[in-house]
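Worked problem 6 (solution included).
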Amino acid sequence: MTFFKYLAVLCAGAASAALASCDNELDVQQSYEFTVETMPVPKELAKGETAEIRCELKRSGEFADALYTVRYFQYDGEGTLSLDNSLVLLPNDRYLLENEKFRLYYTSGCEESQNFVVVVEDNFGQSCELEFDFQHDSGDNASDADLPDAHYPIDSLITVN
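Solution. The predicted structure is:
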């Protein structure tokens, strides 16, 4: 008889623990971590030259009501940043991102180094910061067009069978 009493007490304890931990509210995760990945950008820009910054939002989960905004702050140099829809961004103003893949265009406005931070934020208070640094391209470096044509002897070619 003691085995059945022990079993009954064990079942009653398990049932009460299971019922005590349940609630009637559905727990829906709304906030997911995210990052923004970019393609490589040039290191130097001449005044008036524009660099394309290709960006992709990478989310760890999906929530239909998640909204993402972008803003920037330039702390060295002068230039303008615009979205792929030609909208020129004002520093520290937030702009709604309509797609997970987007492009930013930075146009140099000076003949010195330029540094700025782009911040992508969601409507749950999470953010991702991207820092960009461009040196002034004075045009003094020799480009590929200025280099002589390279000629290689035939015997340096490798044949693959």
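Discussion: The beta strands are 34-38, 44-45, 50-59, 68-76, 79-83, 95-96, 101-108, 114-122, 127-136.
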